[in-house]
Amino acid sequence: MQDLHHLVVVGGGFGGLQLVNSLKGAPLRITLIDRRNHHLFQPLLYQVATTVLATSEVAWPIRHLYRHRAEVTTLLDEVVGVDPVAKTVQLGGGGTVAYDTLVLATGATHAYFGHDEWEPVAPGLKTLEDATTIRRRILLAFERAELSSDAAEREALLTFVIIGAGPTGVELAGIIAELAQRTLPEEFRHIDTRQAKVILVEAGPRILAAFSEPLSDYARRSLEKLGVEVRTGVPVTACTAEGVTIGDTFVPSRTLVWAAGVQASPAARWLGIPCDRAGRAIVGPDLSAPGIADVFVIGDTASVIQEDGKPVPGIAPAAKQQGTYLARLIRARLSGRPAPGAFRYWHQGSLATIGRRAAIIEFGKFKLKGAFAWWLWGIAHIYFLIGTRSRFAVAWSWLWIFLSGQHSARLITQRETIQQRESREGP
Amino acid sequence: MQDLHHLVVVGGGFGGLQLVNSLKGAPLRITLIDRRNHHLFQPLLYQVATTVLATSEVAWPIRHLYRHRAEVTTLLDEVVGVDPVAKTVQLGGGGTVAYDTLVLATGATHAYFGHDEWEPVAPGLKTLEDATTIRRRILLAFERAELSSDAAEREALLTFVIIGAGPTGVELAGIIAELAQRTLPEEFRHIDTRQAKVILVEAGPRILAAFSEPLSDYARRSLEKLGVEVRTGVPVTACTAEGVTIGDTFVPSRTLVWAAGVQASPAARWLGIPCDRAGRAIVGPDLSAPGIADVFVIGDTASVIQEDGKPVPGIAPAAKQQGTYLARLIRARLSGRPAPGAFRYWHQGSLATIGRRAAIIEFGKFKLKGAFAWWLWGIAHIYFLIGTRSRFAVAWSWLWIFLSGQHSARLITQRETIQQRESREGP
């Protein structure tokens, strides 16, 4: 076993897992390192943040996924550097791991465009902790409004601002609006939750820019029907504990969510290779790190420009395709066969939901919107979940919400009580 | 509505909820105050700590439970005092709430018998956060053992000590042993999780002292069959980050769980009335606070000695019976009818599980043990859960574990990484 070629994969996201999955049976030892013990199904994370799903329904312990693959070792540790000469990876715990081939699939996090001071007041949504933080803030805002006797304060508490109108921003805005309009009204005695304002801000000219204009327009109208105020073409210029400045207009709000920018992991810095503006390592057409032997970079932390000049988008299907491609390339190298040609991304289509009853789907020329698209979206997502148990659990949660209109995962947890938050963030 | 008699209930545990439920239709305004937004099904909390259930399967937002009862107002706030002369309750947020009748059902927390410094290294199990903390520690111990190259360190990491052998301690020990013996072995490459030691320590002469001796013996043998080391008749004399001292013997361990003592909430102090050693307010035979008009104390924070001299035990069924009794008493007072006689506790029986296949049940003379008892235990607990959704979800989780042997809720969350814990608690 020790004599086998040793592949080290850093990152158990969509790209890393697809690579390891596709290498089943290859003559390799594989070490998969992640600083989390779980793979996260990012596309549904917004549902954890908005009380629809529980954390365990969108995340799976990585080592459990590979329990039957004896050649795969899972390490829970943080990578802090790479030594391409010694061919080792440095771990935060102090150890090092030697590799024959290294694949960095370390993903991305939110970017605040040079305004990192906005993060505490406008958290992004990348991890399970982010999701429970946002869930707690949304629920606490309603609770504090119920307790408040000051009308201006109550209005600020009942104003929710989502910054960035990609799929995550749109999905968050839709569900928060539904929560306020349909789920919560009968539970409060001093406030009318239907008075809550949900504002979706987008600096670009339209929401869901990855979709064609008619679908993007449809999504906007659907959101507005749910009561969401959509403001496009105007950037956010300040975020504070008191509210947000949209262009020149200050909007008092106690709950901001950041769904705008993306910053790649420091993979390019570890390797000392050039990166693009978002910090993504610029890799060759075969996803290799230029000038560094046996190192590849895939997923959201890689910048790949295809032969036709088009960049590969930073989405889950692209990362998975890169994982599959790299598995083929590694198998070819191991067996001395010629390597496959350059990586080519195949766009399978785009999906987004708006609230509980509408979705938009675009597969090339095929376009679909409305309730039927919503069902297709749901079925597709259940299909992509890992394991029978999760599929049943998520299907049950959705069916329950669909039938009863009641969200179940509405727990305020972590040691931040209603008073602590007040004292930290000002009244 | 404002002219109606105003009942304030503090605490949304078993006692408080039962009281509010039993007062349905009574000519009252009710305000229910809790510092958590959820009711917690404590008897299953150990299953959250041991990766069997998700947090949202054992907790429900309180205000959701009373959405159809317009006369019930739910407040998320912490009570910090009572003024029995002005007849008001002081809230941590600064406000006060006036009452006509006040019921304190504020429960209890763990007690460390004057050793509060043990709490950080030996957390108890009372809240959802406690459960996720213990779950994280258990899972991180295995992860760190997998990374460690030091044999002594590995042994300490794979030693789990549960202090206190009541139902919670026994249930925790059983499930941790099963996790190590059956669920985890095939997922690790450098350690054999079956080498893990689970030690259950009890200062008293036997485990599950509430049960008769034959059942208590059976439980002990069942635990030992699962690989749990049971040590009775010997107290814990020290807990540190390095391990635990049991009598005079030091046992290196990185994961301690406290399931021993109980300390009542400060209800007696708020009222300035006498309390017992555990801090429970000593109340009259009708659960009233002696010498204070219109104030009652129920559940784990009340000490009730019945006419036959027997104390009422601090368990969920007793709290619920007190809630029902007090509802009758309040209805009688409102309508000018004579008050019911003294509160009498009716012991319905005791249940405890040992691991995944055995349980013991004792209803007076009726005794049952083994697999059939386990099924009865499961059905009884599903019956007592709140709401169709949770019953289905828990039944599905249990069925899945029963069929597949795989626990699903194995997520390490909260911002305590493997390194942070090391640096905080020493290597």
From TrEMBL, chains A, B:
SUPFAM superfamilies in UniProt: FAD/NAD(P)-binding domain
Spans through the membrane: 366-386
Principal EC category: oxidoreductase
Domain FAD/NAD(P)-binding: 6-323
Assigned EC number: 1.6.5.9
Annotated ranges, domain External alternative NADH-ubiquinone oxidoreductase-like C-terminal: 347-405
Parts forming coiled coils: none
Catalytic reaction equation(s): a quinone + NADH + H(+) = a quinol + NAD(+)
Keyword annotations: FAD, Flavoprotein, Membrane, NAD, Oxidoreductase, Transit peptide, Transmembrane, Transmembrane helix
Entry similarity comment: Belongs to the NADH dehydrogenase family.
PANTHER family referenced in this protein's UniProt entry, alphabetically: EXTERNAL NADH-UBIQUINONE OXIDOREDUCTASE 1, MITOCHONDRIAL-RELATED, NADH DEHYDROGENASE
Protein name (database record): NADH:ubiquinone reductase (non-electrogenic)
